[in-house]
Design a protein that fits this description.
19% of the residues lie in helices and 12% in strands. It is of the alpha+beta class. Strands 1-2 form a two-stranded antiparallel sheet. It starts with 8 loop residues before the first strand and ends with a helix. It comes from Pseudotabrizicola sediminis.
């Protein structure tokens, strides 16, 4: 059993909060930039 603290983590490109690895991101972890759909949507709406 892997402990939550042992999982890799990243910082969200939109909100700046840290988020941990999830099983559904197993194959695309290198491509994940946002912690949630909300942050991904906000990043698309902002110019630049």
């Amino acid at each position: 059993m892997v402990k939550k603290g042992d999982l890799p983590s990243k910082t969200c490109a939109q909100c700046g909060k840290p988020f941990a690895w999830r099983k559904k991101w197993e194959k695309v972890w290198n491509e994940v930039r946002f912690c949630s759909d909300r942050c991904r949507g906000e990043a698309k709406r902002k110019p630049g």
